[in-house]
Amino acid sequence: MAGTTDGNFLRQFRDLTTREFKQITANQFMDVWHHYDSNSDGYIEGKELDSFLKELVTSINKEDLGPEVVSESALKEAKELILNAFDENRDGKIDIAELAQILPTEENFLLLFRRDHPLDSSVEFMKVWREFDSDHSGFIEADELKNFLRHLLKQKKREYTITEEQLTIYTGTVLQLFDRNKDGKLQLSEMAKLLPVRENFLCRPVFKTLAISANKMTHDDIKRVFNLYDRDENGSIENEELNGFLKDLMELVEEGMPAEAKDYDEEDLNECKKILLDKCDLNHDGKINLDELSMILMSYNRSSSDTECAKE
User: In angstroms, how far is CA 188 from the centroid of its own chain?
Assistant: First the structure.
């Protein structure tokens, strides 16, 4: 980790003359992230966020001048400004990709976070997952991740200038940033952090409102959900369409859980698929049709309704 001669970690990344931030490399970005995400939960939040914002503001000074440099009111104002500008999902904390927008991060490395061009849906995510999990292990290993990052950068830049050495550094850095269980590979939930989806269709406000009461969900509501996942319009949710639906469903169920409980891998997805098809695939064709989806959503809604009643 890069050294610092005083109490402000970010000051080492500013130009001593202009006081502007120098371009931060992939490895330096990783150092900054690990420094402020002290509990390794994947977010800079609470006291971590206060510390980051205070040092971000005071790092422009050549040395620490005492606690009076940033008042509590000024810190609160700075926090609101930063979150309004960069906290895209409005959860009151900073994730890895949001930090990459705040700091002047090396251009090629910044492109890996895909904040400007997220995938359209979890169906598209599962297609990408299948393409780059070339050995069908259920994980994206380091060599597969390197191939994915190479493909991503070629898509993003017409003139492909990144070297193999840089690509190797990026691969190692991405693994360190997103491989939360430190097993040297990315599972589904970890890859989902790196490769964002524009939206989880099941998390749309209208669907969440309907989920409070099963009686409020109409046939038209269910048909709209069905059409979102039946991408080839063949009348069935199957293959990667079904996997995308299951990914969204697992993430919906896990909402509100602590971060460490939100990890899932392909084995979890396959187990979820097995249970779903055993209970809801009435014609045993390995697919989900409109009537079967209706049964799944009604069952989920009744479960959600019971949970809400239990809370009251």
Answer: 11
